[in-house]
Write a structure and sequence with these properties.
It is built from 9 helices and 4 strands, in the order βαβαββααααααα. The chain has helices at residues 34-52, 72-77, 108-118, 131-148, 154-164, 168-198, 219-233, 242-251, 255-260; strands spanning 21-29, 56-61, 85-91, 101-105. The protein has a 4-stranded mixed β-sheet with strand order 2-1-3-4. 31% of the residues are buried.
Length: 270
């Protein structure tokens, strides 16, 4: 068992390529942004370890309708004019007082990777020693990040409706339905394969899978739940995918998901 799997990790920020010690994180986010919800939830799960390392986290909430996203100041941080955006600030002993080095990260998968690598407890990506679970978690997260969210995000839906006179809501529902069908197929297949292993274990070592990948929350769940919330807002019924729905319902029992989901109102759907 690795030190990470045992829950013991050593983090030496002085080794971050000479830019100094990580002192603070500034997250630019929006209440109804599913991509932002991924990062808010990730930070919530990592909060204990982040606090232990005395790194401050400040959230800057920007509504989708705000002109701030297209302001010169914000575009200097994120030329895409979107959220989330994470600014990590580092203090270096050779830097003048009051000055800090910055690393700016502008896409949620990259932000998630930075947080996971910098604050590895609790781990949200399975160990390389569990290749089946690790690759499944990353594949499911990529399915949401690449094939479900981008084709029907608010910018695309607005383009479909305003520039082409199309039914953007119908388009979004179609994207969700196809993507969720693939997600369901992948986790059902993985559970069937995993059951063969479970059947060979003593009864006391058996446990029913609760989340997308086995018995622990992973990056797959972090990415899935905001997508499910977005689908519900568009009128998609999750009952068509019973295994996926059960995973979402199980995740929603966790405070980190409820406090950081779409809208910030603590309900799965508004």
């Amino acid at each position: 068992m690795s030190r990470l799997e045992k829950g013991h990790v050593d983090v030496d920020f002085s080794k971050m390529k000479g830019i100094g010690s990580l002192s603070s994180l500034h997250l630019y986010t929006s209440p109804l942004s599913g991509c932002s919800a991924r990062i808010r939830t990730t930070l919530a799960f990592k909060a204990s370890f982040i606090n232990q390392l005395k790194v401050s986290v400040t959230e800057h909430s920007i509504p989708f309708t705000s002109e701030e996203l297209q302001s010169t100041t914000y575009l200097a941080k994120n030329p895409n004019g979107s959220v989330p955006c994470l600014v990590a600030k580092f203090r270096h002993p050779e830097t003048k007082a009051g000055q800090e080095n910055e690393v700016i990260i502008t896409q949620s998968p990259a932000i998630f990777d930075f947080i996971e690598q910098t604050f590895p407890t609790p781990p949200l990506i399975p160990s390389i020693c569990a290749p089946r679970e690790r690759t499944l978690a990353l594949s499911l997260a990529s399915l949401v990040a690449c094939d479900i969210q981008p084709p029907q995000n608010s910018r695309i839906r607005a383009k479909i409706a305003h520039d082409f006179g199309g039914d953007s809501a119908a388009w979004a529902r179609d994207v969700y339905q196809r993507g969720f069908s693939v997600y369901e197929t992948l986790i059902v297949r993985a559970r069937k394969e995993g059951q063969e292993v479970e059947d060979s274990l003593p009864n006391e070592n058996k446990a029913e899978a609760r989340f997308s990948v086995g018995h622990s929350i992973t990056v797959a769940d972090i990415f899935l739940v905001p997508a499910a919330q977005g689908a519900l807002r568009m009128g998609v019924k999750l009952e068509s995918w019973p295994v996926l729905k059960a995973v979402v319902d199980e995740c929603w029992k966790e405070k980190a998901f409820r406090d950081n989901g779409l809208g910030g109102h603590g309900r799965l759907v508004h």
